[in-house]
Amino acid sequence: MKNLQSTTTLSNGVEMPWLGLGVFKVEEGTELVNVVKTAIEHGYRSTDTAAMYGNESSVGKGIQAAQVDRKGLFITSKVWNSELGYEKTLAAFDESITKLGLDYLDLYLIHWPVEGQFKDAWRGLE
Fold first, then answer.
1. C-alpha 118: how far from its chain's center?
2. Main-chain phi, psi angles of 68, to 5 degrees
3. Is there a catalytic annotation at residue 53?
4. Using alpha carbons only, how large is the chain's radius of gyration in Å?
5. 3-state SS string over the chain?
6. Distance between CA 5 and CA 116 in Å, rounded?
7. How far is Cα 2 from Cα 97, in angstroms, rounded to an integer?
8. How far is CA 57 from CA 2, 30, 94, 114, 121, in A?
9. pTM of the predicted model, to two decimals?
10. Sign of dihedral through CA atoms 107, 108, 112, 116?
């Protein structure tokens, strides 16, 4: 089993932790803030959220509360189907980093590729 500090190298040379905290189905609020904060304090360096989960604000507050250097964290979020397309994807990205209270994401994904809509979203991601 990988330890919390183990990473893999992505094709662009970025180191991504093998193990991370996923927050699907965890509602916004104090509990999520505390979960994210505690996970980071106990060695988790990767957190995975998504706009569709509706909890990016609490994830961001938990990251801030942990008081760990941002450069040591790997934060992932995702654009949802209703926001696919070039301009919509750019706007969705801006909204996600605003809610998270971050200057950047380490990984931004298309949550669910929808036929005919993901090519322009991909261009926005690039």
1. 19
2. -110, 145
3. yes
4. 14
5. CCCCCCEEECCCCCEEECCCEECCCCCCCHHHHHHHHHHHHCCCCEEECCHHHCCHHHHHHHHHHHCCCHHHCEEEEEECHHHCCHHHHHHHHHHHHHHHCCCCCCEEEECCCCCCCHHHHHHHHC
6. 39
7. 29
8. 29, 11, 13, 26, 23
9. 0.92
10. negative
Catalytic annotation, pick one of 44, 53, 86, 104: 53
Please report, rounded to a whole number, the percentage of residues in the chain having pLDDT higher than 70.
97
pLDDT on residue 2:
57
Question: CA nearest 59: which of 87, 36, 27?
Answer: 36
Q: What is the CB neighbour count within 10 angstroms for residue 61?
A: 21
Predicted pLDDT of residue 4: 67
Polymer length in residues for the chain: 126
